[in-house]
Amino acid sequence: MNVQADIAGRYELRGTLGTGAGTVVHEAFDRLIERRVAVKVVNLPPIEDAETADAIARFRRGARAAGGLNHPNIVAVFDYGENAEQAWIIMELVEGGSLKSMLDTGERPTLPRVVQLMTQLLDGLGYSHARGVVHRDIKPANLMLTPSGMLKIADFGIARLENSSMTHIGTMMGTPAYMAPEQLRGETVDQRADLWAAGVVLYQLLSGEKPFSGGITSVMQKVLNTDPVPPSRIGVPPTGTPSIDAIVARAMAKAPEDRFASAAEFAAALQQVAAGVSWPGPMPASVAASPFRRPPEPPDDGTVVRPPLRPLLQEPPRSRRLLLPLLGGGAVVLALLVTGSLMLGGTRSPGGPPQQDVAAVSPPPPAQPPAQPAPVLAPAPPPVPPAPSPAPLPAPDAASIAASLRAMPCSLVQVTQAGGGLSVAGVASSASAEAMRRNLAAAGLPPGATRVALDSFSASYCQLLDIARPFAALGEDAPNLAFTSGNPLREGQGLRFSVTTPPWPARLHVAYVSEAGEVGHIVQGGTPQPPGTSLGFGDGNRWVATAPFGTDMLVVIASEAPLFQQRRRPEPLEDFDIALAGALRDAQEAGRVAVRVVLLRTVPGR
């Protein structure tokens, strides 16, 4: 049977995007909704026993479960179908390539980018785990990147079929390098197997290498019995730190109960350590002794060239510039000791004490008074050349510093360079703002060359900022929002503000996000507004500050196309994040989009 004939009524296949073991991914066009999609086709084996029938039934259930997942960091599943020979899943088309493609080029992301990617991965996993869906095959090839750099998890529900015992030998184990020990042993797995795989991905992002390499048998033995070299010991310069090594070690603990209990706990620990905040989480006893333990290696199976063992618990090696003088001093001491032994000791016979030279014990000849030599004038010492001036220190790379600040997780900042200095402005979580200030202080820029104007928060806005990042309007860019009622807004005061539209006709949507995690929609769509127009909102009575107080957020979205098809009611922040991610994507396909994020503090009255 032909899949193309079965889906031709609605989907037009336009090309092949990739192939795998028993799978093909096509690009297609959905004629009904008029959008491009991806179609993954999986070959079904003949049903010859109950085990195969059960695997296909699980695959159907997995596909249905994946279709119920709606999250910005998960590739959306739109439709499912099958015939006697093949099953197919219609899913969101992600055009930026996979994380595997990025790693295969040798690209080493910066630490802020690593934290951002891992936060998005763990947000998606946390959402699916909360709904009882375990992926079971997290690996870079299943992590897609949009053109704007957002990570999306692909192939939910498909791994069960591709990795089941009905597939041919060599694929039934899936990807051993990313599989948790209990998964390799064939035991029942839960969300902690996904967290193990996420730890392997983190290791690879930090070091550029897989923690376990070799043939399938060798990898399985290492996963079950050994610990890898800490990622901070790999790479020049290394991306990770010993503190992050501990995060990786806990994620990859052999026993599931020693790992993070949830994706949210994993993400919080990583963000805290990356921001320079001491990780307060408990360290399991089996992991606390050292970040990674190394039991004896399993017997070599002939497929692995074993590198020399590297000591794990030692101070980092000194730089070559500091090490060479120490080696030189050691050589001098050694030479003196050898010389002294030659001067003080004689030859040693095999069976007794050292034999002394006979001449050494003969009576000395009578002393003769020494002749007095004629005085010799010592030559004048040569002139001492002036000490060379120290080599100037290299100037700090402001461009690299700026790039790392822009990529800092949980932030939307504009970084500008002027006169050898940097100016940083925008919004960021308290931890990220502190990390930016600390990085700037350690960057070696001239005194007074940095200017920081960050508005910070402690609420759960990180996911929202990641969604807005590709569309963010920063600095003087429009849309812009100015409060006319003051900031902070005191209890009983009414909210008033003005919005300046971008230099193109735009529909406006303004959402109010409270620190408590609730979202209200105070301006919704309507007719396009003229370019560069300032519009006022609020009469001082409609939106009044009440308890609970805190740091709230206003999100202004300007779009050429309508943002939402229907008016939205008050909703939880999590639901808004999901809806906004899809709405922004659709609006971008139809025209221009820009997002402005502004913080508003509400306080009790006097």
UniProtKB/TrEMBL annotation:
<protein>
    <recommendedName>
        <fullName>non-specific serine/threonine protein kinase</fullName>
        <ecNumber>2.7.11.1</ecNumber>
    </recommendedName>
</protein>
<keyword id="KW-0547">Nucleotide-binding</keyword>
<feature type="region of interest" description="Disordered">
    <location>
        <begin position="287"/>
        <end position="313"/>
    </location>
</feature>
<keyword id="KW-0418">Kinase</keyword>
<dbReference type="InterPro" id="IPR000719">
    <property type="entry name" value="Prot_kinase_dom"/>
</dbReference>
<dbReference type="InterPro" id="IPR011009">
    <property type="entry name" value="Kinase-like_dom_sf"/>
</dbReference>
<feature type="compositionally biased region" description="Low complexity">
    <location>
        <begin position="302"/>
        <end position="313"/>
    </location>
</feature>
<keyword id="KW-1133">Transmembrane helix</keyword>
<dbReference type="GO" id="GO:0005524">
    <property type="term" value="F:ATP binding"/>
</dbReference>
<dbReference type="Pfam" id="PF00069">
    <property type="entry name" value="Pkinase"/>
</dbReference>
<keyword id="KW-0808">Transferase</keyword>
<keyword id="KW-0472">Membrane</keyword>
<dbReference type="InterPro" id="IPR008271">
    <property type="entry name" value="Ser/Thr_kinase_AS"/>
</dbReference>
<feature type="domain" description="Protein kinase">
    <location>
        <begin position="11"/>
        <end position="274"/>
    </location>
</feature>
<feature type="region of interest" description="Disordered">
    <location>
        <begin position="347"/>
        <end position="395"/>
    </location>
</feature>
<keyword id="KW-0067">ATP-binding</keyword>
<dbReference type="GO" id="GO:0004674">
    <property type="term" value="F:protein serine/threonine kinase activity"/>
</dbReference>
<keyword id="KW-0723">Serine/threonine-protein kinase</keyword>
<feature type="transmembrane region" description="Helical">
    <location>
        <begin position="322"/>
        <end position="344"/>
    </location>
</feature>
<feature type="compositionally biased region" description="Pro residues">
    <location>
        <begin position="362"/>
        <end position="395"/>
    </location>
</feature>
<keyword id="KW-0812">Transmembrane</keyword>
